[in-house]
Amino acid sequence: MMGRKFVNGVEGGSVSVDDRGLQYGDGLFETMGATNGRVRRFQSHMERLTEGCHRLGMPPPPVDLIETDCLRALEGFGAAVVKLTLTRGPGPRAYPPPAEPSLTRIVVSTAQQVSESEAARPLNLRVCETRLGRNPRLAGIKHLNRLEQVLAGAELREPAVDEGLVRSTDDRVVCATAANVFLVRGGELLTPRISDCGVAGVMREVVLRLAQVLGIHAEIGDYTLDDLARADECFLTNAVRGIRPVGCIVGVNDFRPGELTARLRDAVETADE
Fold first, then answer.
1. What predicted TM-score, i.e. pTM, was given to this entire model?
2. Buried b vs exposed e over 95-107: b needs ≥16 C-beta within 10 Å?
3. Measured distance CA(171)–CA(92) in Å, rounded
4. What CATH number has the domain bearing residue 8?
5. Do 242 and 265 contact (CB within 8 A), yes or no?
6. In whole angstroms, what is the distance from residue 150 CA to residue 34 CA?
7. In terms of domains, do 138 and 101 share one?
């Protein structure tokens, strides 16, 4: 089934060439999984979007309009992906934002079909040379400036490589190009901090909450490739793909999907959304 596109509630609508999202990357986005016409964890995505608007000095997002757009975009879909883009809207050719912006919202839906065997297949990662710059004001939110991820993704040319592991400029492991990363060592769950770069993933928060419920000790901290080399398990999290086990980080470590990864995957699949 072909996807559907809405701009400010109009199906097939257009975006002004003066839109600040296009001109300056002045905006935010959310990529959300959906099942049977319903966005999974919609409220969590809207909370992150609201935080992003606060950080960028934009008006709060029109959640009721966004929800309506998503419902319309998902009509007739089973499993799907919905991408929401929210910009500050059109404005003059200058960096300072308009005092009273007119937000542009874009909702695009596409079908998603992933088999159970593919979802459980361990991923192969390689370490990217591209680094993430440190900026606490933008850390955590999904702003439209994604050139670091574009450059890191451009390094993934080998057919056998599924994802890239990205570090900060001070050599800390931060995330994958489109996912958060977790490692397991000695029965403990570890994940990098994202206080000065990286994205506060919706699924990352779900996993941390479920770990607490399951009695799994979790720590957020600074980790390097040496920590990954000593890890027992590794997995990635993403709001669309859920938990994906890692089988190999080229030149760093080989993993087998372990008990803790499996427990968390099962918990995520049965958790309230």
1. 0.95
2. eebeeebebbbbb
3. 39
4. 3.30.470.10
5. yes
6. 25
7. no
